[in-house]
Design goal:
Number of strands: 6
Shape: globular
Number of domains: 2
Radius of gyration: 17 Å
Protein name: Ferric uptake regulation protein
CATH class of the largest domain: Mainly Alpha
Oligomer: single chain
CATH superfamily of the largest domain: Winged helix-like DNA-binding domain superfamily/Winged helix DNA-binding domain
GO biological process, one term: negative regulation of DNA-templated transcription
Family: Belongs to the Fur family.
Structural class: alpha+beta
Mean pLDDT: 86
Pfam families: FUR
Cofactor: Mn(2+); Fe(2+); Zn(2+)
């Protein structure tokens, strides 16, 4: 964890920001809950346990800054709540998600499934794709057909 914090600190410094104690507390909460998709309020409640003096606005500003610097990705699974997901180190793109419409569970898909689509977009429309997002919304698991 300490190595990741140092790398995030370097990213902040490269963008002329400091890793303040409040920002560090927020980053630590994100790292400790890397498997979860926490809302700003969830992050705030966990940070508040470590740094009682921190305010909700500070956590929001920190999360927005980390999103701008591509340390985290801000995502919405259609429930109106913005959630924050740490970007995997070295990842070229945001990873994909599978959201169950019945129970709300979220599964992460780490494989980059859109390489060919990106190439088509770049060639046909002459855009350089910087990132993409893909969320599958599903209900029941489909039986595997042989």
């Amino acid at each position: 964890m300490e190595g990741r914090i140092q790398r995030i600190k370097s990213q902040l410094h490269e963008a002329s920001y400091k890793l303040t104690p409040q920002r560090e507390a927020t980053v630590r909460v994100l790292l400790e809950n890397e498997k979860d998709h926490l809302s700003a309020e969830d992050v705030y409640l966990r940070v508040k346990e470590k740094a009682p003096e921190i305010g909700l606005a500070t956590v929001y500003r920190t999360l927005e800054l980390l999103n701008e610097l591509r340390v985290v990705d801000k995502i919405n699974f259609g429930d109106g709540v913005a959630r924050y997901d740490l970007r995997k180190e070295g990842a070229k793109h945001f990873h994909h998600h599978l959201v169950c419409l019945e129970c709300g569970s979220v599964e992460e898909i780490q494989e980059d499934l859109l390489d060919d689509v990106e190439k088509v977009v770049e060639q046909k429309w002459h855009f350089l794709v910087k990132d993409h997002r893909l969320t599958f919304q599903a209900s029941v698991r489909v039986a595997k057909i042989n």
